[in-house]
Write a structure and sequence with these properties.
It is a single chain. This protein has a single domain (2-239), classed as TIM Barrel (Alpha-Beta Barrel), CATH 3.20.20. It has helices at 32-42, 52-55, 63-72, 86-94, 104-108, 110-119, 148-152, 155-158, 179-189, 202-211, 223-226, 232-239, and strands spanning 2-10, 13-18, 21-29, 46-51, 76-80, 99-102, 123-131, 134-137, 142-147, 162-167, 193-196, 216-221. The chain starts with a strand and ends in a 9-residue tail after the last helix. It is 37% helix and 30% strand.
């Protein structure tokens, strides 16, 4: 399976939040490019990037950093956080990023999202971010009455190619992933699914590797790497092969 390291950008720095709480953040690096180059050297095929400034509605964002990363790296990037308009999609495509994660807009304006997928040539990924199975939007600050299963059942028809599923209660906790819910989302949607949130050890990765639904194609790792619970290179050596492909 793909082992996908994460970079969360806030005010130009690499941070991690605890359960998505902006008031409980830890800054791990001042230089996102240095972090990304380290991931590339470790053997990553894909980096998961979230623009936390854009996610909570700030117009500031981290576009200049994304531009630097795309010019400096040889691997693939996927970007989420504030991808809420056709203009946002075009901006990121102009930077050369084709794997785009759409979350909030799936809740607030699903009909428009369907038209974006038809108009622009990119690899659309649905970001399903849930707390107690109910979706949350706007950087996880706003609750929705829509459930993760309800959304998952609609995604193929909308034109999505992949899902990233995050149990918000697990994110940034290092207390183990929600594999049960991730497997259920893969089963319901029929789409390749990436697990996100809660990975704290190689044992957690081993559990996902051995017990995941066949459509669970990868796992995002973040805080565990920054906290040095294990090395990215070791995780990749154990659980990622040359046959693991990044679609874009």
């Amino acid at each position: 399976m793909l082992v996908i390291p994460a970079i969360d950008l806030l005010d130009g720095k690499c941070v991690r939040l605890y359960r998505g709480d902006y008031n409980r953040q830890t800054v791990y690096a001042e230089d996102p490019l240095a972090v990304a180059l380290g991931f590339q050297e470790a053997g990553a095929k894909l980096i998961h990037i979230v623009d936390l400034d854009r996610a909570r509605g700030s117009l500031q964002g981290n576009r200049s950093i994304l531009k630097l990363l795309t010019k400096s790296l040889k691997l693939c990037l996927e970007v989420g956080g504030g991808v809420r308009s056709l203009e946002d999609i075009k901006e990121l495509l102009d930077l050369g990023i084709k794997r785009l994660i759409i979350g909030t807009a799936l809740i607030t304006k699903p009909a428009e999202v369907t038209t974006w997928l038809a108009k622009e040539r990119f690899y659309p990924i649905a970001g399903i971010d849930a707390e107690k199975h109910y979706l949350k939007a706007w950087g996880w600050t706003t609750a929705s009455s829509l459930t993760d299963q309800e959304l998952a059942s609609q995604l193929v028809q909308m034109g999505f190619k992949e899902i990233i599923y995050t149990n918000i209660a697990k994110d940034g906790t290092l207390r183990g992933p929600d594999l049960k819910s991730t497997n259920a989302i893969a089963q319901t949607s029929g789409l390749p699914t990436i697990l996100s949130g809660g990975i704290g050890s190689l044992e957690d990765l081993d559990k996902v590797f051995k017990q995941a639904h066949p459509l669970v194609k990868g796992v995002i790792v973040g805080k565990a790497i920054y906290e040095k619970r294990f090395s990215l290179a070791t995780a990749i050596k154990l659980y990622q092969t040359d046959q693991d492909v990044v679609n874009q």
